Amino acid sequence: MPGQLNHWNHNRKAAKAIKNCNRGYIELAEGNWREAEKHLRKSAYSSGMPILNYLAAARAAQEEGAQHRRDDYLLQAHKSDPQADIAIGLTQAEQALATLMHLRSVTPKHRQVLKMLFQVYQQLNSWNDLERLLPELRKNNIFEHHILSQYEQALSKQLMIQAMHNKNHGELKSIWNLLPKMTRAEPEMIHFYCQRLLSIGEHQQAVELIKDGIKRHWNAPLILLYGQAQEKDVAKQLENAESWLSDNGRNAELLLTLGRLSISNQLWGKARDYITESIAAAPSTEAYQVLGKLYENQLDNSVEAMNCYREGLLLTIQRKPINSPEELPKMLN
Predict the structure, then answer these.
(1) 143-230 CATH
(2) What's the CA gap between 222 and 195, in Å, rounded?
(3) What 8-state DSSP symbol labels residue 331?
């Protein structure tokens, strides 16, 4: 009997918690902040998912202007699930955004409000809002010019990634065309954009931009990318790349590109010689992989192919991973 009574009591509390929880979310959706907070707080302990209740209660308290209670709910959320820091951080950022938007309506040009708004948009990955905010940051001299330029470039990359994710190729090109002329001349931006162009089959446009970029600045990543693009006339493309040897020397990147272009022209022996020379100049996993495929697919030498793959793998293991270049730079704390 005592066991049955405890079981019945537990079920009754759980049912009551679910009822309060449901009521709280309904009140929250309808904008009844005080009632929502009350029901969510009551049901948090017995709901089975207390973190959701505490986060929702924090939002209700924020809407009521009760920052002290809001912070207490966020603390309770962390205690209930210490692994949920990302969810808690996003909730804090969303609540901070509401406060900052209000402050901005009162003092539109306040430097600290604009800077903090920039930080919150970054935390929320709200790229379109950041894009709209940048002109105001520039107008009010919130950051030094070179720092703002870095943010603009990083944001443009994120917007391009977003356009690619949405399969909106027209938007991708629009973002590029709207960039300042000086930004479009930056080798890193040309490389980033042309990578996207190649992924959607726009080889000719990518080739023209790459060649134009190389004329302005000799840039190793652009040289490598040129070897991965294909002009309509691949023989002319190889000839053009070979003309760079006299002015820029036989560096590893150019030699690897010449090897790739030789493969495009079905010049297997020439390709092997160029790539082997590239590896001798500066070994790279990429060069070993290209040479390995050449031995495997065109030169019918599986032993040499395996040797190349093994050497490339050893290089990969020896090198430490680096952060993604697409990551938007974060503000200093």
Answers:
(1) 1.25.40
(2) 10
(3) P
* CATH level 2 (architecture), domain 233-333: Alpha Horseshoe (1.25)
Mean pLDDT score of the chain, rounded to an integer? 82
pLDDT value at position 94? 65
- Comparing 9-91 with 143-230, is the CATH topology the same? yes
C-alpha gyration radius of the chain: 29
User: What pLDDT is stored for residue 196 in this prediction?
Assistant: 96
For the chain, the structural domain boundaries read 9-91, 143-230, 233-333
Helix or strand (DSSP H, E) at 213: helix 203-216
The predicted-structure confidence for 279-314, as pLDDT tens digits, reads as follows: 999 999 999 999 999 999 999 999 999 999 999 999
| Mean pLDDT across 213-242 | 94
Residue type, 274: Y
Q: Quote the tokens at residue 257.
A: 């590109």
Cβ neighbours for 25, distance < 8 A, ≥ 6 positions apart:
36, 40, 56
DSSP string, 54-109: HHHHHHHHHHHT-HHHHHHHHHHHHHH-TT-HHHHHHHHHHHHHHHHHHHHHH-TT
* pLDDT higher than 90, residue 29: no
63 band by pLDDT with thresholds 50, 70 and 90: confident
Packing angle between helix 33-43 and helix 2-29, nearest 10 degrees?
160
- Helix or strand (DSSP H, E) at 268: helix 268-281
Fold of 9-91: 1.25.40
Cβ atoms within 10 Å, residue 89: 13
Q: Name every residue whose Cβ is closer than 8 Å to that of residue 289 and which is 6 or more positions away in sequence.
A: 308, 309, 312
Cβ–Cβ contacts within 10 Å for residue 39, how many? 26
pLDDT band with cut points at 50, 70 and 90 for residue 331:
very low
Mean pLDDT for 94-106 is 70
pTM: 0.65
257 vs 219: CA distance, rounded Å = 13
